[in-house]
Amino acid sequence: MSLGEPTDGVRNAAPVARRLAGMSTDLGVPAVLSPDEADRAVRLAAPRGYCAGVDRAVITVEKALDLYGAPVYVRKQIVHNKHVVSTLEDRGAIFVEELDEVPPGRTVVFSAHGVSPEVHRQAAERSLKTIDATCPLVTKVHHEAKRFAGEDYDILLIGHEGHEEVEGTAGEAPGHIQLVQGPDDVANIEVRDPERVAWLSQTTLSVDETMETVAAIRERFPALLDPPSDDICYATQNRQLAVKEIAHDADLVIVVGSGNSSNSVRLVEVALEAGARAAYRVDDASEIDEAWLEGVDTVSVTSGASVPEELVEGVLALLAERGYPDAQAVHTAEESLIFALPPELRRDMRAAEKAAGQA
Ligand code: SF4
């Protein structure tokens, strides 16, 4: 983890107070800050917000709408953020729970969380045109599940029951996978051969909690086989490291993200474990309870991997209105990963460009 320079300023409230002391009002009169306000600081996690998989999935729906015209159907929320979903609905996307809600022959996008082979089969049966926006890092876990199942391992999938990603991954090897939600489940695991047990995980779990679960599994099954690389994705790990850095001495941590966003909910838990005196998740600034700010000097802000930056900006604007200074970014990692759009979409975009060129 490399820490960027703003961290020093963040940890010491004095530079913040000095900067505030130099501010002027609109009338040119130096602003007079109360002693309470001079102690305040706002710290902003970096990285935060959109990951490469979410960015790709949202752009996929936008490009599909441009290319095929509205409506474009999307199975499940494309990413777990209600603002993203309602913005895309405004543009003509129709979100459905299951494929029987999509008229035969129409275009449907599969969400970033992935789908099981059974869903692909249903789509073919209904003659739907499909665009698969599954995050490539989720697809990687699907491949691992298929490989372990092909080698006849019992697979312990660490994750949350009912989460779409877990359903999709489990569907790749239904006879081989069992769900483990935490260390408490380990005593009840039954396998065919203790020498042939492997584990996988959902991509958006708490790293620390998952390692605890793995340790408990390994105690029961010492021959436990690890996945070839981390299943908890780079974005989840980076956002958890970042929130630890801004949370450990914060009076209040605000995590922007929706309630069904696994990685956002984990950020609240990680913030509290890291020492934050209070931590709350909000969909946007309107959900901030004024009482949370009472007696609070240091507010730390971050956002989940499916959260547009404008929602974070709304939170910072509200804090500014309440007398908090500009946020100082605390850098813990650089991210530059970009995923190519789904190949079926790129193919149609190329064909459309070619047709336009010939017209
Ligand atoms: S959180 Fe990770 S696995 Fe999920 S979409 Fe983002 S990069 Fe992919």
Rg, please?
A: 23 Å
Number of helices: 13
Q: What's the N-to-C terminus distance?
A: 53 Å
Give the overall average pLDDT.
91
Summarize the structure.
The chain is of the alpha/beta class and 359 residues long.
Description:
The chain is of the alpha/beta class and 359 residues long. It is 41% helix and 16% strand. The protein has three domains: 6-51 and 234-331, 4-hydroxy-3-methylbut-2-enyl diphosphate reductase, catalytic domain (Cobalt-precorrin-4 Transmethylase, domain 1, 3-Layer(aba) Sandwich); 60-135, Rossmann fold; 137-220, Cobalt-precorrin-4 Transmethylase, domain 1. The chain has helices at residues 6-11, 13-21, 35-38, 52-68, 82-91, 117-125, 136-150, 164-170, 207-220, 234-247, 262-273, 309-321, 343-358; strands spanning 41-46, 72-75, 93-96, 107-110, 129-132, 154-158, 177-180, 197-201, 252-256, 279-282, 298-303, 327-331. The strands form three sheets. It has a five-stranded parallel sheet, sandwiched between helices. The chain has a four-stranded parallel sheet with strand order 3-2-4-5, with helices on both faces. Strand 2, helix 5 (82-91) and strand 3 (93-96) form a beta-alpha-beta unit. The longest helix has 17 residues, at 52-68. Bound molecules: iron/sulfur cluster.
